Amino acid sequence: MLAQGSQILSQAPAQKLSAKRGATAEAALTFVLGEGYHTNSHTPSESYLIPLRLTWDKGALEAVEVTYPEPHLEKYEFSPKPLSVFTGTFRIVTRFKAPLDAMSGPGLATGKLRYQACNQTSCLPPRTIEVKLPVVIQ
Amino acid sequence: MSLARSPYALTGGLAVALAISGCGLFRQVRAAESSLRAEKERKPAPELALKDADGKTVRLSDYKGKVVLLNFWATWCGPCRMEMPWFIDFERKYKDKGFAVVGIAMDEEGWQVVKPFITDLAVNYRILLGTTSAADLYGGVDALPTTFLIDQEGRVAATHVGLAGRDTFENGIKELLSGPSAGSGNPAVLARAR
After folding, report:
1. Model's pTM, two decimal places?
2. Among the partner residues A3, A34, A37, nearest to B142 by beta-carbon distance
3. Are the beta carbons of A5 and B23 separated by less than 8 Å?
4. Which of A21, A73, A78, B49 could form an S-S bond across to A82 if both were Cys, CB 3.0 to 4.6 Å?
């Protein structure tokens, strides 16, 4: 509903993930948030805040578990209590499983990161960015 | 709805750039925005037609002759939540003096989330459900809260992107209510604000 103009959060290029059929493998995605901004963490301090969430599309690999970094508790002028946030550069780790019947070879895992960012005085609308992870199944 | 074609492109870009660059200058601009635009600098507030919680269409022109505080907000926006009790107070204090607050909720989930919130907060002013096209009319409203003070002639006398001080709003309201000759703000700064 609101303007989706400027992207304040971006994904750094991801390293290729190698996964063996029938095994699990972990990939860390790095995200960079503009200076002066924070996003709510995956476990916001207040129920009204929109959590950050990484989800993966169905593909050759199955996302088994997503592990978010430890949030910071930071105090802002507009909130009476510290908020659970991510700032700067942060990494989210996903554990994938390669099914036994997965086709071997290179591919691309895709997903979505939904977040909502604010600075000290204003908030940007919730946004969703596409995330990409090059994979190779052996 | 791109910033590039927005009349508020400078405002949005400036706010983001200053916030990113460390907020020091941003605070100066915020302080400067407390002044109203000079009357000759004011532009007509775009007409709006949006639904209230009862489904009734409300137009900005329904408030002709009044000073209006037009506030774009959302339930997920912390700074918006901080300002709303001030607006409740302004509505109570100045309603009978030719003033009205109009809140435009920009929540994608609509009344399902907005109604419980405004009931809990006992909001005493009119809340309308915003649309993309309404936001576009006011420059895209890239950041919340964004608040416009509109004079009795239906012109935008001040624009505040982000959290502004309670006194900033109240001084502006009082100045506008005091008469049509009000508004001797610094045109150079105000031109940047819109």
Report:
1. 0.82
2. A3
3. no
4. A73
